[in-house]
Model the fold of this input.
Amino acid sequence: MIPKIETATIAEIKAFQEQKLIAVLAYVNQHSPFYKNLYEKENIAISNIRTIEDLQSLPVTTKQDLQIYNDDFLCVPIHKIIDFSTTSGTLGEPVTFGLTDADLERLAYNEAISFDCAGIKTGDLVQLMTTIDRRFMAGLAYFLGLRKMNVGVIRVGAGVPELQWDSILKHKPTHLITVPSFLLKLIEYAEAHQIDYNNCSVKGAICIGESLRNQDLSSNTLSKKIMDKWHIQLFSTYASTEMSTAFTECEHFIGGHHHPELIIVEVLDENNQPVSDGAIGELTFTTLGIEAMPLVRFKTGDLVQLHAEPCACGRNTLRVGPVVGRKQQMIKYKGTTLYPPAMNEVLQDFENIENHLIEIFTNDLGTDEILIKIAVKQESPELLQQIKDHFRAKLRVTPKIEFITPAMLNSLVFNPMSRKPIRFFDYRKNNL
Done:
């Protein structure tokens, strides 16, 4: 069921969020050592912040703030923390997030209304193909949300196509939650073992960690590769540990829907000012309804575009398009600005490429250098030239490219300690 606030008018949604904003600012000013000290230091009177526009009077919060002052963000006594989750920090050490019982309930509610966007209903059965351990918030969130919906969950975990197919054929799930590129491995395994995947029980997949859309919201190459073979619906979802909130596509596939009762979103430029409507900027958010570690004007580092026109599904909320790139991962290469997702998309156009990773480092001239390592089914000078020509046509530049064995590449991309494939390695001096 769609929450009533998501079908309200834009003016009603704004007024609703501003009431929530006043409450969360009063809460952090009383209970958060970090925000209380920050607002005192900046001589900010919280009582003057009454509207979404007034947020611009407040300083932003960064990932580095979380890293350095992690404990000062906690608003409750430690004995009230029911779950400890972690996310990567900018300075090497992970950042810990504590969740109270109320926060876990909010997390479950968020996932329930997000999965409802993607058409999952009571009576469905979902195969969870992500880890639920290692203090990973998302895996736990998926489980809690599905449980709240009275939807069955098969907790298979990540990887192992044989195990995944054994479970699909035996338990007959209607949906999968997975990294989308892994669906290609499931297809490959099914074809090698005579599994009729288009006549199995699966009718949709909630895809995490990798984009399914181009910036115009059309299906990208990865999405097309999957759906050309496996005739299922693919729903993109975007979330982070810090926001404890997801933006998930509905059946119209035109961006992930915003849940206004859970989060306030801004898109900011380099000077922390709102971008013009429809422009690309850094997603910045203020969480609503979080008890243990609420965040105010937190900069995600993700560059996105918001879409504001009403959706045919009946929701009038904002929608978040695919991540253009991470601000920290911006590359200046031979006068051209690049982000890893654009290079990933170019490589997806080649059927012969089985896997790849992108390395960025500082060359002897002090500028950015790109090395792309690829594993292919069959190496040839002609293929290498085709890839270089395609980069030049699509992105106007040609990075260095080298072949590497699948075994060597897989050990780097599919690190057993990582929750998803790692295809970007940044060795630049200013990012160490």
In short: DSSP finds eleven helices and 20 strands in the chain. The chain has a mean pLDDT of 93. The radius of gyration is 22 Å. The CA atoms of residues 6 and 315 lie 5 Å apart.
